[in-house]
Every structure is written in C-alpha cells, then in structure tokens.
Design goal:
It is a single chain. The protein has about 180 residues and is an all-alpha fold. It folds into 2 domains: about 80 residues, Four Helix Bundle (Hemerythrin (Met), subunit A); about 50 residues. The radius of gyration is 21 Å and the shape is globular. The relative contact order is 0.07.
Amino acid sequence: MELVVFVIASLMVLAGAAGVILRRHPVHAALSLVLTLFGVAVHFVAMEAHFLAAVQVIVYAGAIVVLFLFVIMLLGVDSAEDLSIEPLPIQRPLAAISGLAIVGLVVAAVVAARDAPVLQGRAALGEISVESTTSYDANINQLSRNLFSDHVLAFELTSVLLIVAVAGTVVLTRREKKQKEAGS
C-alpha cells in the first residue's frame, strides 16, 4: 500500500511540475503548482509528518499560491508579450547553466545517498525522546525552537521579501497604467 501511495503522490508532483513549466496561461501554471504542493503533502503524510503536511497545504498551497494568483491578476494576463525581445540577453544561458547545475547536484545527492544507512520507521523522521512529552510533541517543539530561535532571521527576511514583492508589484503596475493613460 505504501508503494501505491508513493507512486500516486510522485505522479502528482511530476505532473504538477510539468504543468508549471508547460502551461502557457499563468493561472493554469499556478494551479499546477497547487497539484505539486498537494503531492508533497501526501509524501509528508506517508512519512507520518502530519504537521509538515498541514503546513505544506495551509502555507504553501494556500497562502503562497494565493499570493502568486494575486500578483498574476494584478499584472494582468491578457496582454501578450513578445518573447523574441530579450531584456537581458544573458538570462537564458544563465538559466540553462543553473538548470544543469541543479540536475548535477541532484545526481550527486542520489549517488551519495546510495551508500547511506537506511533508517526504518519513526527514527527516519529524526524524532527526539523527551520524557515529559510524546514524540510528536517533542518533534513539534524541536521544529518550533529551531525555526523561531536558530533561524528566526531567515524566517523574518522571507516575510519581508514577500511583502516587498507584493508592494513592488503594485507600484510597478500603477506606474505602467499611468504611463499608458498618459500616452493615449
């Protein structure tokens, strides 16, 4: 049964990722991203990491994709762009190099992981044992302690980055609309 769940969730992830890349309409690409994120959440549930699955669905499939859709709708998807005009001529070769580097890193990680010992059951999740709490509570406590103490700066910078991105999108959209109205 675990193999069936793994295969179905993996197909969801791969189909959603292909949809993000291959769909021409940005809203359809964002909805394909939702499929990918739900597939990852199913993988988390299969590994008994229910908290991470809930966070995956609520934060990423919910809030982040809604933010993407908001920006897409704000920018307007009705206007067609000329893809033959390159604002930065070097961006496509850099994207190809970055893609190859990521594929190389994934292949290196798979080769290195083949020799790693396989953990079974709940030990694979890295749970800690605390006498006063259950292992699930200890896992949540460890995650929250790690997120809000050790990595609080990265957590806050991410939230600031999202706010700046939305504010910048609004400013750029209003500026473009004013320039179009002034030109006509």
